[in-house]
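Same chain as my last thread, 564 residues:
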Amino acid sequence: MTSTTPPTRPEAPGSLSGHAGEIAVAVAQAHGVDTMFTLSGAHVFPMYDGAVKSAESERPVRLVDVRHEQTAAFAAEATGKLTRVPGLAVLTAGPGVTNGVSAMAQARFAGSPMVVVGGRAPNNRWGTGALQEIDHLPIVAPVTKHAATLMTADDVATGFDTAFRLARSSHRGPTYVDVPMDEFFNVGSGPRTAGGDVAGETPDSDAVGRIADLVAAAERPVLVLGTDVWADHAEEAALRLVEEMRLPAITNGMGRGVIPGGHPLLVTKARGAALGGADLVVVVGTPLDFRLGYGIFGGQDGTTPAQVVHVADSADQVSGHAALAASVSGDLTTVLDGLLVALSGRRQPDRSAWVSRLQDTVAQASARDAELLGAEADPIHPARIYGELVPRLADDAVVIGDGGDFVSFAGKFVEPKRPGCWLDPGPYGCLGAGLGAAIAARIARPSAQVVLLLGDGAAGFSLMDVDTLVRHDLPVVMVMGNNSAWGLEKGPMQMLYGYDVAADLAQRTAYDQVVGALGGAGETVADPRQIGAALDRGFAAGAPYLVNVITDVDAPYPRSTFGI
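reply #2:
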């Protein structure tokens, strides 16, 4: 068993009783869970019975069964990202749990709150070779915040509450519990505890003051806003700081949309100039990993290296490898509002030339982008897909990326108008997360457009779960960039060796026909002038719909890093 001391929470009046599955579902309900993602397995039948009986409660728990446990776990991870309430995946013992490990690892790297419940061989048969008998904890402990076996039915109420509280406390992430099968069916009791958000750490006010001093002195500051700004409910505070201090900002991960697309202070399209020319970079809510040059900024055109500030939601997330001028951890709204208060009324350098320079760079990049977005090339340039898609996206559309090269273009061209509307795998880089995320998004945002961007390679991991979309009446528009290759690997291998192997897929596979066979619909598009009409049909379909666009394998995304 691995454990982290959970934040304390007062008990609610009364107690819970019933079989362990009923108790577990009641605890999940108290923490705001309304959907259970699973693939049928006898080890966890009591959880299903608890969900069925919850229909009579104020917060019924919907049961969504999928075709692969990875999809259940990815759906729970995406639910945690979108709703900021822990997603719940219930996986049967043995391979059910191990099939969910990649999603747990993705959640750990991305800071996504989720609880995974595993089945477990019965206590009364342990050690005799029961079906799928394995101790899961040594497998899942390295990729979770907390992993525990709840040995009796009476342990379930407190054990599940601990798992949910740790999942939603900073720094958020996945937790895991399993219950022996015989005890899952047993009757037990336990305390009824209140759910709800867990208070964040109180930041050091002196540290906030030191950061304010650095910002006040900077001539060319840049603010980087990442996933935890959204996860920590700090999106309004971040926008206030940017607008009132007129700080140019770059967003990544689920920080995308915190500064609305098109905002004059959003300079993501001038990322190279901003991070290369800055004298101070304040990174909030995202690690200083390969996506941010490991925390090394400045030095462009003979300028000195930039000073770096790291702001995180918990102390363990503050960079240990970067040379930091200052850092602080704690509740991000408190930090950002504290900076705003400390900076208000202070004399600061005139940064209008710096901001104008970045805005000019954004305008130039947008002009260059316009050529690609309208490209008439045959085969189709991947950018043309976004030229047709972006104007059709509503402000509250949820856009999901599941792919390598094709989805890299999305990061360049799609700028969400609202926070909480962009989902990507995060720094762990899993393929195959998309169908689970699409299922979660359609449930979490029933009135919004949900668009899943798929590479043809990524589709092979999970396209069978279109069946889940169909069975549960979850219409999603899927847009595929089909270049018949593993594009993210093909180009680099050619660069290194002058040839590539294991990088090609079957030419022009009719994945839309696969979707049709599963009960959805779709079409193949090979003419750029037909993309827009195909998208319109997809949005109007009222069913899972795949627009399978045949793209040019020789039009790769221009990247400056391979993630190492």
